[in-house]
Design brief:
The chain is α+β, with helices and mostly antiparallel strands. The chain folds into two domains: about 1-70, Roll (Ubiquitin-like (UB roll)), CATH 3.10.20.30; about 80-150, [2Fe-2S]-binding domain (DNA polymerase, domain 1, Orthogonal Bundle), CATH 1.10.150. The protein contains five helices and five strands. The chain has helices spanning about 20-30, 80-90, 100-115, 120-125, 135-150; strands at about 1-5, 10-15, 45-50, 55, 70. It has a five-stranded mixed sheet with strand order 2-1-5-3-4, sandwiched between helices. Helix 2 packs across helix 3 (about 100-115) and helix 2 (about 80-90) crosses helix 5. The longest helix is centred in the C-terminal third of the chain and has 16 residues, at about 135-150.
């Protein structure tokens, strides 16, 4: 039995401790906002927050999150997350939307640590979160817009 906090709720899973967190979230817990992309930790579609930092859930074993805090797109909340989500909507960032949960989680983690990121900061924080539709310019603009709303 592996116990951890998931989206603010204490959760226990009776699964193989070697199971990738991605499959535990999707198949065992029914949280399908975290996407399978490449399975090799290269695309960022499976990004979740572990103790507030972005990680790739496809390569993180369930045993590695024991007694820690995992946040998925379904559980993302708070002032920073709300600013990011509203900016995403205002700037019509997603096209296909497949990468968006990972992008939003990574942007939220960035803005939680750095309320005034430069373009280089944004590019570094979201590097590895691939967008099939190449909306990188809109993603960067949305992060800046979210940062500006946090300043008000």
């Amino acid at each position: 039995m592996i116990s951890f906090t998931l989206n603010g709720t204490r959760t226990s899973l009776d699964v193989d401790p070697e199971m990738p967190l991605l499959w535990a979230l999707r198949d065992s817990l029914g949280l399908t906002g975290t996407k399978f992309g490449c399975g090799m930790s290269l695309c960022g579609a499976c990004t979740v927050l572990l103790d507030g930092s972005p990680i790739r859930s496809c390569q993180t074993k369930v045993k590695d999150v024991a007694k820690r805090k995992v946040t998925t797109i379904e559980g993302l909340g708070g002032k920073v997350a709300q600013a990011v989500q509203q900016a995403w909507i205002r700037l019509d960032v997603p096209q296909c939307g497949y990468c968006q949960s990972g992008q939003v989680l990574a942007a939220t983690a960035l803005l939680t640590e750095n309320h005034r990121p430069s373009d280089d900061d944004i590019d570094a924080a979201l590097a590895g979160n691939l967008c099939r539709c190449a909306t990188y310019h809109r993603i960067r603009s949305a992060v800046h817009e979210a940062a500006n709303t946090l300043e008000v």
